[in-house]
Specification:
Structural class: alpha/beta
Number of domains: 2
Helix content: 40-55%
Largest sheet: 7 strands, mixed
CATH architecture of the largest domain: 3-Layer(aba) Sandwich
Distance between the termini: 31 Å
CATH topology of the largest domain: Rossmann fold
CATH class of the largest domain: Alpha Beta
Strand order of the largest sheet: 8-4-3-9-10-12-11
Radius of gyration: 21 Å
Shape: globular
CATH superfamily of the largest domain: Vaccinia Virus protein VP39
Order of helices and strands: EHHHHHEHEHEHEHEEHEEHEEE
Number of helices: 11
């Protein structure tokens, strides 16, 4: 999940078939970016101002608001404002994801799963943080399922998949994807784990879907979330949209949900300076990962 791309607001409006939206002054822009950071922790650069303007105006027109200030005040108005904020978040987030996105991270994850599943009476718990429309947790489930089949084992595994966007989660739960979205999925996995539908649509089979629990969560609340303990936390390309203070807050919250010896797998370059006494960085030149101390 990322904040939308930059561009000219007039061009955006023209593309959407709307008249040019009203300009937003610096005070208003600061007001909206502060609200966004307070609600989601995400930072919005000046280069993305036009995206913010267009997204706000699209939503404002839908519900009958004509200026930024009145809509801003509505978002602060108790229960109704909270519900509206949920709708707006879906407009302000762009859901960039794909199956088996980072091959190096997936290979590292696979080696972790092999190790855990080789242990007697072991269960495997994985948390996919910022799961967007589901490609990531479904990739993880297919990877684990194929490992178990190769090893001729029947073991329990479960995947918790969280995101702030209800719209993304709804699509993830449906588990239906266009054939083009499956380009990075090996053909044997498409055959084994998907059911072909009409119009080049493919549906994830129930035995894969049943392993995943999708839930809405603001990543800023992860420290107190009821997630239980995970062997692996898989979080790719989410932290880059937060400033350093928020990254540290999120990472420290994630560690709480790691089992002793569990591993946190992040996207390349997402963390520069982070120290937590409960984890050590893994020595790997292609994957950024931290392992919780076994005696912690």
């Amino acid at each position: 999940m990322v904040i939308g791309a930059s561009g000219n607001s007039a061009n955006f409006a023209s593309w959407k078939g709307l008249e040019t939206p009203p300009e937003m002054d610096e005070r208003q822009f600061s007001q909206w970016t502060a609200l966004l950071r307070a609600k989601t922790g995400m930072r919005l650069s000046k280069e993305r101002k036009s995206f913010l303007i267009t997204s706000l105006n699209l939503r404002m027109r839908e519900i009958g608001y004509h200026n930024y200030q009145s809509y801003y005040e509505y978002l602060q108005s108790g229960k109704a404002g909270k519900l509206e904020w949920t709708a707006l978040v879906d407009r302000l987030t762009v859901h960039e994801t794909r199956f088996f996105r980072d091959q190096n991270a997936m290979a590292f994850l696979e080696s972790e799963c092999v190790e855990i599943l080789s242990q007697d009476n072991s269960e495997l718990q994985i948390w996919s943080a910022g799961c967007s429309t589901g490609e990531e947790p479904y990739s993880i489930a297919m990877l684990v399922e194929s490992l178990l089949e190769k090893q001729h084992k029947k073991k329990y595994y479960g995947i918790s998949a969280t995101d702030i966007s209800l719209m993304s989660l709804a699509k993830a739960k449906r588990g239906v994807f266009n054939r083009k979205r499956l380009e990075q999925v090996p053909d044997e996995m498409v055959f084994e784990y998907f059911e072909e539908q009409k119009n080049l649509q493919y549906k994830v089979k129930d035995r894969i879907k049943s392993r995943i629990c999708f839930a809405q969560m603001n990543i800023l609340d992860c420290a107190t979330a009821r997630l239980g303990k995970a062997d692996v936390i898989y979080c790719q390309n989410l932290l880059i949209y937060f400033d350093q203070d928020k990254r540290t807050e999120i990472l420290n919250g994630m560690v709480i949900h790691l089992k002793p010896g569990g591993v946190l797998i992040l996207g390349p370059g997402e963390v520069i300076e982070w120290n937590n006494p409960l984890v050590n960085r893994e020595k790997h030149n292609k994957v950024l990962a931290y392992r919780r101390l076994k005696n912690s």
